[in-house]
Design a protein that fits this description.
It is built from two helices and five strands, in the order βαββββα. A hairpin with a 2-residue loop joins β4 and β5. The termini are far apart.
């Protein structure tokens, strides 16, 4: 599936390469709302990230990326074990 990036995906200065790595190796995906899914995983430097994306017309649009927020950490860590 083609991946596209909204300008909002760069708000927290997470590079496209880091985002793509998480999308390819995510540990846990969480459906947030209205078709938005958060993909949780570590980048190549073992920094835990959350990547928000929506599927539209056969493409995956990345709309959000940042370090995992505290409210998701416990559940994310459960999926690591």
């Amino acid at each position: 599936m083609p991946i596209r990036f909204a300008s909002s995906a760069s708000k927290h200065r997470i590079s496209h390469a880091r985002i793509l790595y998480v999308l390819e190796h995510y540990v846990w995906a969480y459906d947030v709302r209205r078709g938005v899914t958060l993909y949780m995983g570590a980048d190549r430097n073992s920094i835990d990230l959350e990547v928000g994306a929506v599927e539209r017309g056969g493409d995956l649009y990345v709309i959000h990326a940042m370090k995992i927020r505290p409210q998701f950490l416990a559940e994310y860590r459960r999926h690591l074990s």
